[in-house]
Design goal:
globular, 5-stranded mixed β-sheet, 4-stranded antiparallel β-sheet, 237 residues
Length: 237
């Protein structure tokens, strides 16, 4: 039995609230159970310096966790003077996931920065960030289109992400902290709306996992992302 009493293929309750950041071109508050992330997309009317003159834009992300998003206070990374390796890895993952479904040439020489700030953490913060960041990016592109900055949305597809793992020798989906901290295997899957794989991160934490277990986790993730994309679409309708 999972600590949350959920079935192995049962996700936590997921919700999206758009337009929560008044001044951002696009924003979304995403909740995966008790994990809450505020995603805000900002338009910068110039590309990064290394991309200037190439006729295309860029989508990137920044990720951070508020000091009391966790059970005990975590020191702000700004006060330490540098980002942790974990933070750098997560924000690069979010950026890669969003670029995988964006036509950067249609964006022109502009950059979109999506800030993902974890308000409350209970496992799955990176997957919640990716899923909510897509909605923030969508609304940013809509804002640009309504002002004739772009002719049509540069988005080519949906993208969402979910965690899976092996917990008590059973493949399960959408791990909360109680499971994530003790799981034998921890994995994250980023998948597009059309079913394309963007990235798979899988690590043996306690015991090695088999190809069959990896396949079982992938099957769970595919169904979970399908449900998340359906919820993204319902949120936009």
């Amino acid at each position: 039995m999972r600590p949350s009493k959920r079935a192995p293929d049962e996700m936590r309750q997921v919700s999206f609230e758009r337009g929560v950041a008044r001044y951002a071109e696009g924003s979304c508050l995403v909740k995966f159970g008790n994990t809450q992330v505020l995603c805000a997309a900002s338009l910068e009317d110039k590309p990064p310096p290394w991309l200037r003159g190439q006729g295309r834009g860029w989508v990137t992300a920044e990720y951070s966790m508020l000091p009391r998003a966790t059970h005990t206070r975590t020191r702000r990374e700004a006060s330490a003077g540098r980002l942790s390796g974990r933070t750098q890895e997560i924000q690069r993952l979010i950026g890669r996931s969003l670029r995988a479904v964006t036509n950067l040439s249609a964006l022109g020489e502009r950059q979109i920065v999506v800030d993902c700030d974890v308000i409350q953490a209970d496992g799955g913060t990176r997957t919640a960030s990716i899923t909510g960041a897509w909605l923030a990016l969508h609304d940013c592109f809509d804002w640009m289109r309504s002002r004739s900055i772009v002719k049509e949305s540069p988005l080519r597809d949906h993208v969402a992400a979910v965690s899976c793992g092996i917990f008590n020798a059973t493949p399960v989906i959408d791990l909360d902290y109680a499971e994530d901290s003790t799981a034998e295997t921890d994995a994250n899957f980023v998948i597009t709306g059309s079913g394309g794989l963007v990235e798979i991160q899988a690590t043996a934490e306690v015991a090695v996992f088999s190809q069959d277990e990896l396949s079982a986790m992938l099957a769970l993730a595919q169904q979970g992302v399908s449900d998340l994309v359906a919820l993204q679409k319902a949120t936009l309708s």
